[in-house]
Every structure is written in structure tokens, then in C-alpha cells.
Amino acid sequence: MTTFLGGATASDDDTAPAPAEPSRDAPRVPTWVTVAAATRRPGRAPAPPRMSRIYLQLVTAAAVVFVAVAMAGGFASRTVAEREAVKDAAKTTDLLAESVVQPALRDTLLTHDPTAYAALDEMVRIRVLSPDVVRVKVWTPDGTIIYSDEPKVVGLAFPLDDDERAALTDGTTLAEISDVTKSENRFEQNGDKLLEVYRPVRTPGGSRLLFEAYLPYGAVSTRTGVLWRGFASITFTSLLLLLLLMLPIIWRLLDRVRAAQEHRVALLEHAVDASTDERRRIADTLHDGVVQELAAASFAVSGAAERAESDGRTETADVVRRAGAAVRGTIGSLQALLVDSYPPDLSSAGLVAALTDLADTARTPDIDVRLETTMGPTGLDAEGERLVYRVAQESLRNAIRHSTAAHIDITLELVGADVVLVVADDGRGFDVRPTFDEPRDGHFGVRVMGGLAARSGALLDVCSAPGEGTAWRLTVPRA
């Protein structure tokens, strides 16, 4: 390959170390700069979601909803069950206090009379204590326990809390989940929850006492199960029916979405085909009409110039020759426009043949364009070959228009699993970063090349500096 870029070939390694402290007047040594990195693999558009995956997501979402509803229903059922069990315990305690305990009270119980205590204890053990009532206590207003079916706490005093004082004072029945960690409940600390209900009772002489009963928490669990089964049967049945009703609707919607996608793809393909056909028609019309007529006019003008020269009309001959040169230049411009508007069919001609035609078209008496390649089939898909052709075309166009180069080398080779295109010229070069950061008018093509490479999953590098030429390197992975 011809050596450009300050003595380095276009395929020099961009990892070569740069001088540590270059002087201000030293020539700038160009290095490779990446201007576009791959954002996706070429030709691998995201596949549409499969129906099985969509239904799996739907079933997973339904399962999550079922679990959430189950958790919420369990919490709600336990809350309602506790509230209802507390109400039932209050009613039971009211009934026992009114019909059993209060009639068995004696005024002498306040003076710890054994006879009064024994009569109450007998009544409690016969008619109150049961699997539904596990503990009974009777308190004085000062917090002394004067009766309990557990004799060890009789005579002990504990301060009454606000709720107990309110029940004793206001004559109401209060029920709650018992706090078995209290010292007064140390003989109830068997690891089970209890419902605690207290309400006032009176002795025959009118003395007010606080009656307290402890009920097992199992009633709450039983009621929770009943409520949960009723809630679950209704809720899950409703959700299942809703899901079954939604499945046909979702099926139809997905079918319509798929049909819409296929229709949109078909329209896009039709639009592309129509655009291609229109460009082909315009190119054929220009080539067979205007270009041929201009070529005939060029021959006629050249003949007129020769006749004027032979007749001694030198000045007229010069004018006619300039007109002929202008016509030939117009023909070249039209031919380049035809290639731009309708590039060669790479699928039939092949990339190498298309690049050969491109180099031949760009070659002029002032610019030597050479193509070097040993490749046959590139192994790239249609998108990859179009990318290579367009980058080569844009690089050539930039070199011809802006670089004032005398030599342009195009190299196409296989490096590992990648197809690498290098377009290098010996022109005036440019500052890479300013050109890409703030492109001037007419220089947006370099950014277009970067965008094309990035979207196609390729890597585009440039190596240039003022006065050192320019090299473009495109690396395209083979699918």
C-alpha cells in the first residue's frame, strides 16, 4: 500500500505510544481516533415476542395477583376475626357476669371471708370455667385481686391501667388481646394468646368490683379460617372467571397487533421497493436520454472545434473546445449523480465489483484511485455490504472534494472474523475532533458515516492531521 499519513501506512496500529512532550513546532503525528462504535450487531433486529412468552407473562402476572390477594385477604380475615371474636368474648363475659358471678358475690368477700370466697369459687368452677373461659379474676378498685381460680394471685395488688379504671368507673365492658407479659398474668404465660375481657360487677351492698375473664385465642383462629375460606372461594373464583374471560380478548388483541406489525412491514417494504423502482426509472431515463444526448453533443462540439481549427479560426476553436470540456464535465457529474441516486445491485454484481466501478468512476487525470483486495465473497449480509459501499463512496467523495489528494488507495481485506475497509489519501488532512464536534457547512458527511456505522454494529476510525493525509477504517463483523 502507498505510504501516506506522515510515513505510516493506513493499517498502522493505533496503540503506538505518542511522544511524552511534543514541542509546539513539531509536526503533529496522526493517530487512529474512533468516531463510531458498534451499538448492535448488524442484521440482527430484535425478534418479535413469542406468543408463548406473552402467555407465560400473563400467567405469572395472574399468579402474582393471586398471591397478593391471598395475603391481603388473610390479613383482612384475621383482622375481622379478631374484632368479631372480641365482641363475642365481651358478650359471653357480660352474660356470665350478670347471670353467674354477680349473684354469687357476698359483701363479706371484701373482708376475705373464707365462706364467701368458697361459695364464689364453687360457682365459678361449676358454671364459668370451661374450654371457653380459662381464667377468672375479681379486683377491688385499688387493684387488689380478691378472687381468682388461681389461688396464688389472690391478695396480690397491681395498679389498674387506664382502660381497667375506665371500665370500672363508666360501667362498660372492654375486651382486648391480653398482654401475657404483665406480672399479673405470669400464671397465664403458657405461650398461647388470650382474649381479656373486664367489666364492673356489684356486691349486694353496692360495692363495685372489676370482673375479668380470660378466653382462649383459638376462637379467633377458627373464625379466621371460616372467613378466609368464604373470602377465598368468592375472590379466587371471580379472578379465575375474569382471567378466562380476558384470554380470548387478549388473544384477539395480540393477533391484531401481529397483523398490524406484518401490515406495517409490508407497507415499509412496498415503500422501499417503490422508491427503488422510481430511482431506477429516473436513472434509466437520465442515462438513456440526457446523458446520451450530452455525449452526442460533446462529439459534435469536438468536431466543430476541429473544423474551426482547420479553417484557421483559432479563437472560435478554443471557445468551442471549452464548451466541449464543460459538456464532458456535466456528463461526469450526471454519471456520479446516477451512481449516488441508484447504486449498483450489490447482490448480483458483488461488493468487489461495485468498489471497482466506484474507483474507476472516481479516477481522473489528476487523481489516481487504486483498489487493492484479494477477497471474493465477503461473507457479509446485504446491510453490511451496503454499509461498506456507502462508506467507501463517502470517503472518496470527501477526498476528491476537500483533500486536494493526488493518490487515493482503497483496501478491502479480511482481518480475523471482520471485513476491514481502508480508504487513504495523501491530501491536506484535517483536525479530527473539531471537524466532528463542530462540522462546517458541507462537512456533515463525516458524521453521517459515523451514524451509519454505529447503527449497523460496525466500528469506524479515522486517522488524519493537517498536511498528513487522511485514512478511514471501517471494521464490519461478519454475521
Describe the structure.
- The longest helix has 93 residues, at 218-310.
- The chain has helices at residues 51-104, 114-128, 162-170, 218-310, 314-341, 346-349, 351-362, 382-403, 432-437, 445-455, and strands at residues 32-36, 135-139, 145-148, 174-177, 194-202, 208-216, 368-373, 407-415, 418-425, 459-464, 470-477.
- Strand 10 and strand 11 form a beta hairpin.
- Residues 6-27 and 40-46 have low confidence and may be disordered.
- Among the domains are: 1-42 and 350-479, Histidine kinase-like ATPase, C-terminal domain (Heat Shock Protein 90); 58-216, PAS domain (Beta-Lactamase), CATH 3.30.450.
- The strands form 2 sheets. A 6-stranded mixed sheet has the order 1-10-11-9-8-7. A 5-stranded antiparallel sheet has the order 3-2-6-5-4, sandwiched between helices.
- The protein is of the alpha+beta class.
- Helices cover 53% and strands 15% of the residues.
- Helix 1 runs antiparallel to helix 4 (218-310) and helix 7 (351-362) packs parallel to helix 8.
- It is rod-shaped, with a radius of gyration of 49 Å.
Question: What's a concise summary of this model?
Answer:
The protein has 479 residues and is of the alpha+beta class. The protein has ten helices and eleven strands.
| Uncertain residue segments | 6-27, 40-46
Order of helices and strands: EHHEEHEEEHHHHEHEEHHEE
Question: Looking at this structure, what is the CATH superfamily of the domain at 1-42 and 350-479?
Answer: Histidine kinase-like ATPase, C-terminal domain
The overall strand count is: 11
Strand content: 15-25%
* Shape verdict: rod-shaped
**How helix-rich are the residues, as a percent range?**
40-55%
Cα Rg: 49 Å
| CATH fold group of the domain at 1-42 and 350-479 | Heat Shock Protein 90
> Order of strands across the widest beta sheet?
1-10-11-9-8-7
| N- and C-termini, Cα separation | 28 Å
CATH class of the domain at 1-42 and 350-479: Alpha Beta
